[in-house]
Design goal:
Elements lengths: L1 E5 L4 H12 L3 E6 L11 E5 L9 H4 L4 E4 L12 H24 L6 E7 L10 E2 L9 H11 L10 E7 L1 E3 L6 H9 L12 E2 L1 E3 H13 L5 E5 L5 E2 H11 L10 H8 L4 H4 L3 E2 L2 H5 L9 H8 L4
Parallel strand pairs: 1-2, 1-4, 2-3, 4-5, 5-7, 6-13, 7-11, 8-10
Antiparallel strand pairs: 9-12
Helix pairs in contact: 1-6, 3-4, 7-11
Length: 303
């Protein structure tokens, strides 16, 4: 299979690419920063501006599938007005460029996997959230809704579109987990804020497996929560992390301090969701890591 991955230079895209290459698929990565070192066979980096089809439209017509993971990192900087603008533009503009490619290509890929997030649902307390739950109204929820809607037009072109509402992806050396683990490793672990907010999570290996499962399953259409079947409260999540790291769990991080330090971005830590992968499980996907303890045991077994 020939697969195009816009935004494939991020840690999720790199993990997916490695998995696909291991099975002899051919991968093209659209990125603002093409690799300067030699790349493996069957892997090609294509430069793009994140807004247009310049330089890659002809290649697009050769693809069998597209996995759109493009989007500015939401957790690397404070959410200033400029940062929020980049977060939106990097998602919506890139997705609109993908739609343009589908419209103009002499031959269309059969399937589009479109990234999104469980933040689509907004802060919902302890309510279990399936894919049928309506969206929230906060900034991140609105961003996710616009992100998903940006590629909706390909539905009318006969393209099978799958929405990936991704939870917190657990990887030892990438994503947000290293930041969450740092205070625990420094013997200052504890709940963040009230600790009652939901943490929906998924092991990186299961995330890659789920993407491939949805890519290859012709029955997969529409939105899917890419989240393990056992979400936790923040307090229980941090307690499981502390146990895996053999560290104490005792020092709460006050909500007011996190809001003062992080501003609006503190919603990533202080608000949350209990997302359930109902449609993924119903389609037959089996998780390797169903509990956070299993996931942490695997990630930190060789620390």
């Amino acid at each position: 299979m020939k697969i195009l991955i816009p935004g494939g230079s991020g840690f999720l895209g790199q993990a997916l690419t490695q998995s696909l290459l291991a099975d002899n698929h051919q991968v093209w990565v659209l990125t603002r920063a093409p690799a300067k070192t030699p790349t493996p066979a069957n892997l090609t980096y294509l430069p793009w501006d994140g807004r247009t089809t310049n330089g890659w439209l002809d290649t697009f017509a050769e693809m069998d599938a597209v996995v759109n993971l493009a989007g500015d990192n939401v957790g690397d900087q404070l959410w200033t007005p400029a940062k929020k603008k980049r977060m939106r533009q990097s998602r919506v503009d890139s997705s609109l460029a993908i739609v343009t490619a589908f419209q103009r290509a002499s031959r269309r890929p059969a399937v589009l996997l479109q990234a999104s997030g469980v933040g689509y649902y907004g802060p919902r307390g302890a309510e279990p959230l399936s894919e049928n739950t309506p969206p929230g109204t906060d900034f991140f929820s609105t961003l996710a809704q616009d992100w998903e809607a940006a590629t909706r037009m390909v539905d009318s072109l006969g393209v099978r579109r799958v929405i990936l509402r991704t939870a917190l992806v657990l990887e030892k050396n990438a994503g947000i987990l290293p930041r969450m683990a740092l205070p625990v490793q420094l013997f200052a672990g504890g709940p963040l804020g009230s600790g009652t907010q939901g943490v929906s999570w998924i092991h990186l290996q299961d995330h890659v497996r789920a993407m491939r499962f949805l890519l290859e399953n012709s029955k997969a259409i529409g939105a899917f929560n890419l989240s393990a079947p056992n979400p936790l409260s923040n307090a229980d999540f941090m307690r499981a992390l502390a146990q895996a790291l053999s560290r104490p769990y005792w020092l709460p991080a006050p909500a007011f301090a996190l809001r003062l330090l992080l501003g609006e971005m503190s919603t990533l830590l202080l608000d949350g969701q209990f997302a359930i992968p109902q449609r993924l499980v119903n389609l037959g996907f089996v998780f390797q890591y169903e509990t956070a303890s299993q996931a942490f045991s695997d990630l930190y077994a060789s620390r």
